[in-house]
Design brief:
- There is one protein chain.
- This protein is mainly β.
- It has one helix and 17 strands.
- It has one helix at residues 125-131, and strands at 5-16, 25-36, 41-49, 55-63, 69-78, 81-90, 94-101, 105-112, 120-121, 144-146, 150-151, 165-166, 171-183, 186-195, 216-221, 228-233, 239-248.
- The strands form two sheets. A 14-stranded antiparallel beta sheet has the order 8-7-6-5-4-3-2-1-17-16-15-14-13-10, with helices on one face. It has a three-stranded mixed beta sheet with strand order 9-11-12.
- The chain is globular, with a radius of gyration of 17 Å.
């Protein structure tokens, strides 16, 4: 019997590019993206970052048929200790959060929106691939600015919160082009995207704070589902990400 949805189940390896640690595994991510028959998508992701303090993250993020965020759940541990868990919901005019964090206690947030939110950053690498859906593919490699960027954490590893946080600068995302790409999971038609100012020869100082994220290159599938195939980030992070297995059903 044919299923009324399509599922993509995969694993992403995180490896270090830092001198002396080249190729060393520093984390992993297991994910499922469900494409529903009516155009909705749901991501379920379990992420593990080994570098101290270790981060463990579980995310369920849903999109409506227009690829707009609909609802989300995020739970994080840092240093093998619970940090927080929160539920998020989007409407055309409001973004809400109900949760609990060790630092803030019980939280209840409401943010008025002038237009539906187009993106919500939750920090799984698979979620970064889905984020690329908002980029226009007919404007070349120039950066496209999306000023209203909301995240569950402003920390680059997503190790705080989770709660509603607005990025002070917004998202700069560019479409570089179409490529044929081979990764551990196979060979794919790919879309190449770029976040930041990595088209510059020299990067400015990068560190773990808003506006200082290093250049971020990403390749997703070109099938309309934006499954992350490969990514790398430079600067102080110096990490590569690769899809090593993928099952489609």
């Amino acid at each position: 019997m044919a299923m009324p949805h399509k599922s993509f189940r995969g694993k992403i390896h995180y490896t270090s590019d830092k001198p002396g640690r080249e190729g060393q595994e520093r984390g992993r991510e297991y994910f499922t993206v469900t494409a529903h028959a009516d155009g909705r998508h749901t991501l379920q992701s379990h992420c593990e970052i080994d570098d101290a303090p270790a981060v463990m993250r579980d995310v369920t993020l849903s999109f409506d048929s227009n690829w707009l965020p609909a609802d989300c759940f995020v739970r994080i541990d840092v240093g093998n200790r619970f940090v927080g868990s929160s539920w998020f919901r989007f409407t055309d005019r409001e973004f809400e959060c109900e949760g609990y964090t060790v630092n803030e206690g019980r939280i209840s947030q409401r943010v008025a929106l002038s237009a539906p939110a187009r993106v919500f950053g939750t920090h799984p690498i698979a979620a970064d691939g889905l984020l690329c859906k908002i980029a226009a593919l007919d404007q070349g490699p120039k950066m496209q600015l999306f000023p209203d960027l909301y995240l569950c954490s402003l920390d680059h590893r997503g190790a705080t919160g989770p709660m509603i946080m607005r990025h002070p600068i917004g998202l700069r995302l560019g479409f570089v082009g179409r490529e044929k790409l081979t990764v551990g999971a196979g060979t794919f038609d790919a879309l190449h995207f770029r976040i930041g100012e990595s088209d510059k020869i020299e990067e400015g100082e990068t560190r773990n704070e808003p506006g200082k994220h290093p250049a971020y290159e990403m390749w997703t599938t070109a099938d309309g589902h934006y499954i992350m195939l490969k990514a790398w980030v430079s600067g102080y992070m110096m990490t590569s990400y690769e899809l090593v297995s993928l099952e489609i059903s």
